[in-house]
Design goal:
The chain has six helices and no strands. Helix 5 (125-141) packs antiparallel against helix 6. Helices cover 72% and strands 0% of the residues. It is an all-alpha fold. The protein has helices at 12-30, 36-59, 65-89, 98-113, 125-141, 148-172. The protein has one domain: CDP-alcohol phosphotransferase transmembrane (TM) domain (Four Helix Bundle (Hemerythrin (Met), subunit A), Up-down Bundle), CATH 1.20.120. The protein is globular, with a radius of gyration of 17 Å.
């Protein structure tokens, strides 16, 4: 693991995450007048970039605490931007925003009540798999037409399960 004080943009994976973050912000400007296929394609590109930055970080042994947080927060922003875009421009119900806000609702009690200790990585790969499924459901929802609502409901259910499982492991499990 690479150790540095503060943000480190001398690592390749952090630059890749920055590209992902900029692409996510770019989605905001595409939602109002862009076809679903183009939005879906950009969402899949963001997913590929996300996988790529993690792969490169592990392959080049360029992981860092900052990089892990930067990646997780850019992932959360991706979900939030997509949730807001779907709500505003695809006439989805208000509760669809839950998908984009759950990470922040989860982090509030973590910040105030959880001791600052590192999470162990073993057994946590299920969260990466669930996140991947949610990202793909979000990406394909823009081209599903009448099934868009169903894909987003499933994404919300998976996110709720994932965060409730994480909450259980962080707060309840002994």
């Amino acid at each position: 693991m690479y150790n540095s004080i503060g943000p480190s943009f001398q690592l390749v994976p952090n630059w890749i995450t920055l590209i992902k973050l900029c692409s996510t912000v770019g989605l905001i400007f595409l939602f109002p007048e862009t076809e679903g296929v183009l939005i879906s394609t950009l969402c899949f590109a963001i997913i590929v970039i996300d996988v790529l930055d993690g792969f490169i970080a592990r392959t080049l042994d360029q992981t860092s605490d900052f990089g892990a947080i930067f990646d997780a927060e850019s992932d959360a922003l991706y979900v939030l931007v997509c949730a807001v875009g779907v709500y505003l421009f695809y006439e989805m119900p208000l509760w669809i925003l839950f998908m984009g806000l759950i990470r922040y609702f989860y982090e509030i009690p973590i910040y105030f009540f959880k001791k600052k200790e590192k999470k162990q990585n073993e057994g946590r790969s299920i969260y990466a798999i669930l996140a991947g499924i949610v990202f793909i459901l979000i990406a394909i929802s823009f081209v599903l037409g009448t099934y868009q609502f169903h894909a987003l409901v499933l994404a919300n259910i998976i996110l709720a399960y994932s965060f409730s499982r994480g909450f259980y492991e962080d707060f309840i499990k002994i």
